[in-house]
Amino acid sequence: MSTATTTDLYEVTMALSYLAEGMTEPATFDLFVRDLPDDRGFLVAAGLEPALDYLSGFRVTREDVEAFAAVLHRPAAELEPLLGLEFTGEVRAVPEGRIVLAGEPLLEVTAPLPQAQLVETYLLNLVSHQTMIASKAARCVLAADGRPVVDFSLRRTQGTQAGMQAARLGALVGFAGTSNVAAAVAYGLAASGTMAHSYVEVFASEEAAFRAFARSHPGPVTLLVDTYDTEQGLATAARVLRELGLGEGCAVRLDSGDLAALARRARRILDDAGLPMVRIVASGGLDEYAVDDLVGARAPIDVFAVGTRVGVSADAPYLDSAYKLVAYRGQPVMKLSSAKVTTPGPKQVFRRPGYADVIALRDEPPPPDGEPLLLPAMVDGRRVDGPSPVADARERFTADLAGLPPAARRIHHPVPPHAVFSEALTALTGRVRHHIEDDVVGTHRRPAPGEFVPGPPRGRRPEGGAP
């Protein structure tokens, strides 16, 4: 089977029905995040590169048809219309690394309706998960305030593929390295690692363990000092490093306890031993909150190793993302469900200074100070450009972060900027709403004088925080 079967069943049943009804005209879907999780001031767009790889190789095979038939308990012949279905549409997307806000389309797909429908689940999974992890990792970089951050998340991520993604996304927002060997090789990242407590435990003493490790690794070494008594471990590590003539590039790692107090003690022990160049690495359940506290306490920590809580985005493990139809056969459509109202028509997002972003219709002229965020990524089912390196995404993130308002950068209680609708999008939303209420469901009535009419007013975001 191919990745075409990695989808929700209703995508298959809808696509099959569309084909049976001859409904194959172009449809446009927006992928966006309705609201930011608590304690998030921004999101970092991620997942586009693997999404484009997926769409480029999307094709329903004979085995896929047989799998669809098996789960539907129907003869394979009835699923034949799906055979050979490929993605031939276009994608406009926010490049990876750009900072985005609630309600702004991260990706817009326009393709024959069955195609655009069948790829929904996979695209949502890729973009939602990776945007979530990249945004968490970005906050760690902010909290570290210039100190290196490395990824130690692989052993606790929810699957090894998620661990690969976490390593890549950390690098995308500026992490200095990863413990994940496969990711280091695949993405050209710096590999970073030390030793486990079990390594120390199998030797007769900490000193024996440290000396054996240094013999095996003649380059700079990092010694884990808290297997037994941390202060004794620090003194032993300092003595071994000094006697072996090691120092430059070496480090000690603290993995438990009061990291701020232990780091201060470690710094004194190392300095008194004539090893001011030996760095202090901290790990052990760290995320942006813990890193921010340690930096605020002026703990002399040189490198932060973040793992579980970042690799699974523990405090915000999902995004309220959606993939919604906004046009079919060239006609705008919208959803009116309570608290989940969408806005019709293909979009463009214009980035303005101070993140005073405008969500507009695709063909609107940009405001004088506006930069379009949605760029062509695929045309006729083919990528517009080759794969974008992680380094390019990191440059985009760094540039966007520099212009982000200070209130949105805060680790605790950030205040996210909010995009507004353009006048043209607001007007179109009103017209489509009235058409649906008058001609589709027949529920519209004219409001009484002064009566409030629900809908996204000009210059404001809709109820619920997103279009």
UniProtKB/TrEMBL annotation:
What is known about its processing and modification?
Answer: Transiently phosphorylated on a His residue during the reaction cycle. Phosphorylation strongly increases the affinity for substrates and increases the rate of nicotinate D-ribonucleotide production. Dephosphorylation regenerates the low-affinity form of the enzyme, leading to product release.
Is Ligase found in the keyword set? yes
Tell me if Phosphoprotein is a UniProt keyword of this record: yes
Where is each Nicotinate/nicotinamide phosphoribosyltransferase domain found? 149-289
| Molecular function GO terms recorded | glycosyltransferase activity; nicotinate phosphoribosyltransferase activity
The signal peptide stretch is none
EC nos: 6.3.4.21
The pathway where this protein functions is: Cofactor biosynthesis; NAD(+) biosynthesis; nicotinate D-ribonucleotide from nicotinate: step 1/1
Q: Could you tell me which residue ranges the Nicotinate phosphoribosyltransferase N-terminal domain spans?
A: 6-128
Matching Pfam families: NAPRTase, NAPRTase_N
- Which keywords does the record carry? Glycosyltransferase, Ligase, Phosphoprotein, Pyridine nucleotide biosynthesis, Transferase
Reaction(s) catalysed (UniProt annotation): 5-phospho-alpha-D-ribose 1-diphosphate + nicotinate + ATP + H2O = nicotinate beta-D-ribonucleotide + ADP + phosphate + diphosphate
InterPro entries recorded for this chain? Aldolase_TIM, N/Namide_PRibTrfase, NAPRTase_N, Nic_PRibTrfase-Fam, Nic_PRibTrfase_pncB, Nicotinate_pribotase-like_C
So which domain of life are we looking at?
Answer: Bacteria
Extract the ranges annotated as region (Disordered).
442-467
Function recorded in the entry? Catalyzes the first step in the biosynthesis of NAD from nicotinic acid, the ATP-dependent synthesis of beta-nicotinate D-ribonucleotide from nicotinate and 5-phospho-D-ribose 1-phosphate.
Q: Which family does it belong to?
A: Belongs to the NAPRTase family.
UniProt name for this protein: Nicotinate phosphoribosyltransferase
- Organism, by scientific name, is Streptantibioticus rubrisoli
